[in-house]
Specification:
Elements: E1 23-28, H1 55-62, E2 65-71, H2 109-116, E3 122-127, H3 133-139, E4 142-145, E5 165-170, H4 173-182, H5 199-208, E6 220-224, H6 234-249, E7 253-257, H7 262-280, H8 301-311, H9 314-326, H10 332-353, E8 388-392, H11 401-406, H12 409-413, H13 420-425, E9 429-434, E10 444-450, H14 455-462
Parallel strand pairs: 1-2, 1-3, 6-7, 6-8
Antiparallel strand pairs: 3-5, 4-5, 4-9, 8-10, 9-10
Family: Belongs to the amidase family. GatA subfamily.
Main location: mitochondrion
EC number: 6.3.5.7
């Protein structure tokens, strides 16, 4: 199924870097920064100081950034609540004084808190399966995950290379939009990053996406029915419905859409991400990277096991073991290969529901016989297609840290169920803070998802203050 797609001209003139306004920048501790240690919240890196600075930090310095510090996180980005850190947990500043500590989300919890407290104007985080968007939802700030390959990852300590994305957090959308688009950051290719899109590909992608958001009355917003899960808090479901009604009152068309592979997305993610992590963390052996244990003069497996046993935390060890098993000869076909197939299905589901073609691929004809029998058709060409998707960011409000510690690892992984699909497909997504009434102290986040490289219009829609539902 292929519909007519909108072509566009290139956007207008860019802001000169010399005219960029200065701003304070906080940097997640897995992003190399000159003059500051890069520890990834892990004991194995100690006081490691990177010999070079990450490209994204250098680019933002050129755009007026002053680095005010590094932020705490889950060790190597592995977590959803920023509790897996050698420095201790990150605490949500929205909790009342004297109350029990509450999760700030993870793994970029420290970056979200720096913005929420006003210590930084913009903070850098990394988003592998929701690690920018979840903290944004829990702390009441904006969290933006760009299209995969847009922002350079050179100098970012990798967790899962095919999923890791540098993201930005701020108190509202405008500073993020300005630094990414008004200064031309989205156009810059980094030859040091093999996942950074080439200049030619960036231009082709930009031509495929409209440069500006049309009137709301011309927008079609999709509501993914699979995201309405049983575990979704009723008040978050009500906020989702209220925001959809607000958009509809402004003339937007709201339609249900189906993303059937969503049900398998989380399982696929927790096979693929640990598998890549087990490979990436193999270099931390006490020789090339990492601290040595008491038996540091030992050789071979003893040296490696002591270095990793002393330096890695429990969650990192767990994911290394999970990843090593899924890459083993006896499990590769049943787990890793199947997860890669599910990832393709997730991407195909998104491509089916968006009006715009994915500019990385040739337009594909979707067979209607592959779709569910109860899928509603727009016309003889197939189901309705949408400009954006609207969903909750997290299924619950931020939990107490004591409750997080009692949960099993599988229960904690469930927190990523609504953010992982966009990460698997490499799509841009942004979480905006929402609060219905004063009966809930904590805000929640609503997530907007767009087709690949349609980031500019995504941020423009997120910047529309849908009062009283967007409370930025």
């Amino acid at each position: 199924m292929v519909r007519g797609k909108t072509q566009s001209s290139s956007p207008g003139p860019l802001l000169r870097l010399s005219d960029a306004k200065p701003f304070r920048l906080a940097v997640k501790d897995n992003i190399a920064t000159e003059g500051l240690p890069t520890q990834c919240a892990s004991g194995i890196l100690g006081q490691h100081a990177s010999p070079f600075e990450a490209t994204i930090v250098r680019q933002l310095r050129a755009r007026g950034a002053t680095v005010v510090g590094k932020t705490n996180m889950d060790e190597f980005g592995m977590g959803s609540h920023s509790v897996n850190s050698v420095h201790g947990p990150v605490r949500n500043p929205l909790a009342a004084a004297g109350e029990e500590d509450v999760s700030a989300g993870g793994s970029s919890g420290g970056s979200a808190v720096a913005v929420a407290l006003g210590d930084a104007d913009i903070a850098l985080g990394t988003d592998t399966g929701g690690s920018v968007r979840l903290p944004a939802a829990y702390t009441g700030v904006v969290g933006y995950k760009p299209s995969y390959g847009m922002l350079s990852r050179f100098g970012v300590v990798p967790y899962a290379n095919s999923l890791d994305t540098v993201g930005l957090l701020a108190r509202d959308v405008e500073p993020i939009r300005q630094v990414v688009f008004d200064t031309g950051l989205y156009e810059e290719h980094d030859p040091n990053d093999p996942t950074s899109l080439s200049v030619g590909t960036r231009r082709r992608c930009s031509r495929a996406c409209p440069p500006a958001l049309p009137n709301t009355s011309r927008l079609t917003i999709g509501i993914p029915v699979e995201y309405n899960i049983t575990e979704l808090d009723p008040s978050i479901r009500a906020a989702w419905a209220a925001a959809a009604s607000a958009l509809e009152s402004q003339g937007a068309r709201l339609v249900p859409v189906s993303l059937p592979s969503t049900k398998e997305a989380l399982c696929a993610y927790y096979i693929l991400a640990p598998a890549e992590a087990s490979s990436n963390l193999a270099k931390y052996d006490g020789v090339r990277y990492g601290v040595r244990g008491p038996g540091g003069d030992a050789a071979g497996e003893t040296l490696y096991s002591e270095a990793r046993g002393a330096g890695f935390g429990a969650e990192v060890k767990r994911r290394i073991l999970l990843g090593t098993y899924s890459l083993s000869s006896e499990a590769m076909d049943n787990y890793f290969i199947q997860a890669q197939k599910i990832r393709r299905l997730v991407q195909r589901d998104f491509d089916r529901v968006f009006k715009l073609d994915n500019p990385l691929y040739e337009p594909r004809q979707f067979d209607l016989s592959d779709m569910s029998a109860d899928t509603a058709l727009e016309d003889k060409q197939g189901p309705v297609q949408v400009d954006f998707l609207l969903s909750p960011t997290a299924p619950t409000y931020p939990p107490k840290l004591s409750d997080v510690r009692k949960r099993s690892s599988v229960d904690v992984y469930m927190n990523d169920v609504l953010t992982v699909p966009a990460s698997l497909a490499g799509l841009p997504a942004v979480s905006v803070p929402v609060k219905i009434d004063q009966s809930h102290r904590f805000p929640t986040g609503l997530q907007l998802i767009a087709q690949y490289w349609d980031d500019r219009r995504l941020l423009a829609l997120a910047d529309k203050k849908i009062t009283p539902f967007w409370t930025l």
